[in-house]
């Protein structure tokens, strides 16, 4: 039987950022519950940028099994963990230090390897292998949830437009020393990792994101890095945006609800398109 095509993106838009933050927290907890019920733990990958501040809604949430979380970073700047450019530091300040996830279950780069990009990326990949490959001989790790941001040029993680890493098919974690956005040295998940996740969710807020969100959701044929995030079935991709970011986007929105399968995502997209047509 031929492989199923990827499910269409599910696009949620919220009146303001506070509703986005609350809904995102609800979504993450539901993803946690689904993962623990099926696999006994919750594997999560985080990004930097504006995402950490949008995770504050998780602090104080009820029903969170923090002891079962395994947290990675989709990309990281090659700087010490306490440096202002560190994605770990941003996530730690906004969210991680306020919740009781065991520190050994928060997987960070090895600061002793900052001068050797090959070793640094290999060591981070080995952390993934230790968690995912010992119990499962899958070709790539399968995260329960990867939370992503969208750069002003359409990049996500440290996968930039026109960069050779967009074509990487083997490595789980790759390095670059020519990032167009400083700092220039980084490590990043590759598309084979991102597109094997059960769920990916972009979190976008602010007026400055209007044009790029429109380009990615309404003109995916341009192949910007964010548009290339299409998890293989049964994986799903979601977009959380506040109204100011979503203002120019034509792609139809879905009322916020839990969507647990590819069939539900297809049905939600169909209903959203039909509702948009009837409103015209």
UniProtKB/TrEMBL annotation:
Gene3D superfamilies per the record?
3.40.50.1360
Q: Which family does it belong to?
A: Belongs to the glucosamine/galactosamine-6-phosphate isomerase family. 6-phosphogluconolactonase subfamily.
Source organism: Filobasidium floriforme
This chain's function reads: Hydrolysis of 6-phosphogluconolactone to 6-phosphogluconate.
Residue stretches making up the Glucosamine/galactosamine-6-phosphate isomerase domain? 16-233
The organism's taxonomy opens as: Eukaryota, Fungi, Dikarya, Basidiomycota, Agaricomycotina
EC number(s) given by UniProt = 3.1.1.31
Q: What is the protein name given in its UniProt record?
A: 6-phosphogluconolactonase
Top-rank taxon of the source lineage equals Eukaryota
**Keywords, ordered alphabetically:** Hydrolase
Top EC class per UniProt?
Answer: hydrolase
Q: Which GO terms describe its molecular function?
A: 6-phosphogluconolactonase activity
| Recorded metabolic or biological pathway in which this protein acts | Carbohydrate degradation; pentose phosphate pathway; D-ribulose 5-phosphate from D-glucose 6-phosphate (oxidative stage): step 2/3
Give the NCBIfam families listed for this entry: pgl (TIGR01198)
| Catalyzed reactions | 6-phospho-D-glucono-1,5-lactone + H2O = 6-phospho-D-gluconate + H(+)
Instruction: Please provide the Gene Ontology terms (biological process) for this protein.
Output: carbohydrate metabolic process; pentose-phosphate shunt
Is this entry keyworded Magnesium?
Answer: no
């Amino acid at each position: 039987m031929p492989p199923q095509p990827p499910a269409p993106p599910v696009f949620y838009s919220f009146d303001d950022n506070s509703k986005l933050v609350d809904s995102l927290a609800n979504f993450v907890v539901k993803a946690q519950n689904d993962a623990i019920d099926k696999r006994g733990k919750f594997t999560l990958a985080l990004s930097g940028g504006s995402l950490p501040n949008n995770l504050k809604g998780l602090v104080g949430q009820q029903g969170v099994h923090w002891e079962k979380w395994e947290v990675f970073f989709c990309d990281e700047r090659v700087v010490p963990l306490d440096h202002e450019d560190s994605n770990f530091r941003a996530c730690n300040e906004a969210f991680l230090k306020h919740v009781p996830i065991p520190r050994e279950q928060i997987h960070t780069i090895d600061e002793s390897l900052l001068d050797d990009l090959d070793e640094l990326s290999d060591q981070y990949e080995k952390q993934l292998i230790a968690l995912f490959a010992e119990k499962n001989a899958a070709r790539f790790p399968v995260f329960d949830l990867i939370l992503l941001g969208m750069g002003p040029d359409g990049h996500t993680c440290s996968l930039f437009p026109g960069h050779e890493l967009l074509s990487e098919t083997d490595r789980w974690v790759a390095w670059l020393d020519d990032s167009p956005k400083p700092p220039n040295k980084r490590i990043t998940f590759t598309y084979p990792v991102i597109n094997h996740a059960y769920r990916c969710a972009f979190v976008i807020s602010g007026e400055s994101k209007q044009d790029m969100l429109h380009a990615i959701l309404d003109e995916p044929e341009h192949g910007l890095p964010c548009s290339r995030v299409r998890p293989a079935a049964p994986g799903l991709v979601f977009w959380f945006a506040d109204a100011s970011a979503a203002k120019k986007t034509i792609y139809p929105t879905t009322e916020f609800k839990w969507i647990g399968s590819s069939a539900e995502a297809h049905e939600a997209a169909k209903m959203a398109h039909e509702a948009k047509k009837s409103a015209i």
